[in-house]
Amino acid sequence: MDIETLVKLTSRAWSLSILAHMDRGVPGRQAALIAATGAGRTSFRQSLDHLIDLGLLERNPGHGHPLRPEFRLTDQGAEIARVAHRVEALAKGSSERNLLRRAWSLPILSASREPIYFCEIKARLLPITDRALSQSLKLLETHSWLQREMETSGRPLRPLYVATNAGAEISRTIGA
């Protein structure tokens, strides 16, 4: 999956989780998906609308009630849902699943498969601010999904970032 798609997909907190649960076989109805994901109604609805706008979900014609519609994955949505399912399976605890819901976690992990500088990550993730990137890098480092190494060969010293542990597995899964 390319970084641009990841940035669009993860801009809503529950998008990845909705796709992963639909790939697991949770029915495409709002009540079932809310129960499975644990999302609040408002944020869930925003994520659902976002997935429809991206063309990953669509209303299932002829199914559901107008007030309780049923949704299904599009062909592109089914491919991304399989990846989302594998990514969520790699997140062991609830704190790691919460980390996956953060907007920049997956795009940063995807960009840092190999050692990379801060400015190079920023260039690959054009809409990200310095502050958001810095905070996300620290958070991923705290969870041991990202490793920060100092390059000592030149002046000034520059940190290199690379995905490690579960972060490296997630990065490989996204890139496959």
From TrEMBL:
Domain HTH hxlR-type: 104-174
Keyword Transmembrane appears in the UniProt entry: no
SUPFAM superfamilies: Winged helix' DNA-binding domain (SSF46785)
The keyword Transcription regulation appears for this protein: yes
UniProtKB keywords: DNA-binding, Transcription, Transcription regulation
Alphabetical list of PANTHER family matching this protein: TRANSCRIPTIONAL REGULATOR, MARR FAMILY, TRANSCRIPTIONAL REGULATORY PROTEIN
Protein name: Winged helix-turn-helix transcriptional regulator
Species, as recorded: Hoeflea poritis
